[in-house]
Amino acid sequence: MDELKIIAVDENNIGQEHICCAITDKKGETCVSSKKAWMQERFPDGLVFRKLNVRGKVFIEYIPAENA
């Protein structure tokens, strides 16, 4: 088994990282690209997105309350 790692997804690596684990209701590349675009717009507001390097819904996403 590979070592578990926490990956910080940010404006520098969002294009290369897999994030479909964050999308529950909709499937497909259109939804993934929409989510990534939204995240890109929120990073300057303090959005934090961390995920494990495993398949499945293993992530945490939050933003400071004053910017939510």
How would you summarize the topology of this molecule?
Blueprint: E1 6-9, H1 29-42, E2 48-52, E3 59-62
Antiparallel strand pairs: 1-2, 2-3
Structural account:
This protein is α+β, with helices and mostly antiparallel strands. The protein has one domain (6-67). 21% of the residues lie in helices and 19% in strands. The chain contains 1 helix and 3 strands; from the N terminus they run βαββ. It has one helix at residues 29-42, and strands at residues 6-9, 48-52, 59-62. The chain has a 3-stranded antiparallel β-sheet with strand order 1-2-3, with no helix packed on it. The longest helix is centred in the middle third of the chain and has 14 residues, at 29-42. The protein is globular, with a radius of gyration of 12 Å.
